[in-house]
Design brief:
Elements: H1 3-11, E1 17-19, E2 22-28, H2 32-49, E3 54-58, E4 61-66, H3 76-93
Antiparallel strand pairs: 1-2, 2-4, 3-4
Helix pairs in contact: 2-3
């Protein structure tokens, strides 16, 4: 992808940034376990796409960094995954910003 294409794609993904040959974003959660559940859902989707980001877990934060190693940089695969991660985060917090509740923890939004 060209620098212009990357900039255009990033403009459609609030909070995502370019860091060298990757796109990154840090997500914040109410609890440590909410972050862990998010990582599990991201990992499941990454497996389906065969595109695996680096995931760094901290206390109530998860940083995602995505690059396409076999292409040596950022590709549309990274942006496809980023959009799906954004969808997952929205589904976890709900439209009203509420945290994921115990009654829906086990539901996978990727199957919807």
């Amino acid at each position: 992808m060209t620098d212009e294409q990357i900039t255009e794609q990033l403009s459609q993904l609030p909070g995502w940034q370019r860091e060298k040959d990757a796109i990154t974003k840090t997500f914040r959660f109410s609890t440590y376990m909410d972050g862990i559940r998010f990582v599990q859902q991201v990992a499941e989707q990454a497996e389906k796409l065969n595109h695996h980001p680096d995931l760094h877990i901290g206390y109530c934060v998860v940083t995602v960094s995505s690059t396409t190693h076999d292409s040596g940089g950022i590709t549309y695969k990274d942006f496809t995954l980023a959009r799906q991660i954004e969808t997952r985060k929205r589904l976890m917090t709900g439209t009203d910003g509420e945290s994921l509740t115990p009654s829906n923890w086990g539901q996978s939004p990727w199957s919807k």
